[in-house]
Write a structure and sequence with these properties.
Blueprint lengths: L1 H28 L14 E4 L2 E4 L4 E7 L2 E6 L5 H11 L6 E2 L4 E4 L5 H38 L4 H34 L2
Antiparallel strand pairs: 1-2, 3-4, 4-6, 5-6
Helix pairs in contact: 1-3, 1-4, 3-4
Length: 187
């Protein structure tokens, strides 16, 4: 029985870590006003009939705090990359000079910062919901084991461990959101 409890707790912790990792990825996609190569992550370009990430067909660099440069390895990829960026609707119009594409990030207004932080908060809330669902599933599994003969003390200890994991990961979500808010409001 103890091995099964350890497995339930381990699975719960692993799933909560995945929820945090997903939140981190989603928060990097919300632009805070600073130029970053992550701005074009997740944008695929049509590369000879295959959907390919921009980072696999071009060199992406940050020129300054507000400019991202995308230099395709093949000149004929300029137009498809521009088209993919426009279709991704990231709120930035690509500008091409025939050699490279530049993305100029406009300064964020106070209203836009608040809007972006609301979006970040929404992602944080989704992560919290995922973590709570993982807690619920873990506790249900422990209760099922308790019905199958697990002692009440072991069940209560396991439930407390799962709750402690939940509290720890919810605090991590809050920490990530606070860092993102600080980053957004400092620009």
């Amino acid at each position: 029985m103890s091995e099964e409890l350890d497995l339930i707790i381990e699975d719960s912790e692993e799933s909560m870590k995945k929820a945090i990792s997903h939140l981190e990825v989603e928060l990097t996609r919300i632009r805070a006003g600073k130029a970053t190569p992550a701005l074009v992550d997740g944008i695929n370009v049509d590369y000879y009939g295959a959907a390919t990430p921009i980072s696999n067909v071009a060199n992406i660099t940050v020129l300054d705090a507000r400019t991202v440069s995308i230099q395709p390895w093949e000149k004929n990829m300029l137009a498809p990359i521009e088209k993919a960026i426009m279709q991704a609707n990231i709120g930035i119009t690509p500008q091409s000079d025939g050699v490279q594409i530049r993305l100029f990030l406009p300064p964020l207004t106070e209203e836009r910062r608040r809007e972006l932080f609301k979006k970040a908060s929404g992602e944080g809330e989704q992560a919290k919901i995922a973590i709570r669902n993982i807690r619920r599933d873990g506790i249900e599994q422990v209760k099922k084991l308790q019905k199958d003969g697990l002692s009440e003390d072991l069940a209560k200890d396991s439930e407390k461990t799962i709750q402690d994991l939940t509290d720890k990961h919810i605090a991590l979500v809050e920490k990530h959101l606070a860092a993102k808010e600080k980053d957004m409001m400092s620009m």
